[in-house]
Amino acid sequence: MTATTTEYLETYLQDHRAGAAMGSDLAHRLAEENTGTPYEDYLLGLAQEIDGDVEMLEQVMDRFGVSRPALKIAGAKVGEKLGRLKPNEQLTGYSPLSRVLEIEGLRGGVQAKQGLWDSLAELAKHDDRLDPDQMADLQDKAQKQLDGLREQSRRAAHEAFVVGEDD
Questions:
Q1: CATH of residue 140
Q2: Are 16 and 133 in contact (CB under 8 A)?
Q3: What is the DSSP annotation of 77-90?
Q4: pLDDT at residue 113 above 70?
Q5: What's the number of domains the chain is made of?
Q6: How far apart are the C-alpha atoms of 80 and 24, rounded to whole Å?
Q7: Is residue 1 part of a domain?
Q8: At residue 146, does pLDDT exceed 80?
């Protein structure tokens, strides 16, 4: 197999790990904020899937001897919490606008994760520390997550912006 340079790979994986921390926190908060709503089951399942994806990323990092970026992860977690301070057209509580924006934010994170799996699938062709079939499965899983989030986003936008129509 061709040797893999870790010059860029280490930073790349660490940056994705930091983003994964932010995405995991957002997914869990979305699930919590939507307890008792039609979104609850989907968001709980997605948060658990994302946790599994974070574990997989950490396994990949271990295979390449890449350390966990504690400072980057802490910064990402702070960033996710600061993102909660956005105006949501409601003084207290969780608004339909918050749901729309947060689902869209999670879609962006899953899109980035799909890019990670795409890049690692390319690397898997040249480095036996990665299994091409496993990377293909992760690519498919990310696509399914995006498809599900797109549907949830559509529903949330309808509830937030369309008035006078029953579904």
A1: 1.20.1260.10
A2: no
A3: HHHHHHGGGS--S-
A4: yes
A5: 1
A6: 10
A7: no
A8: yes
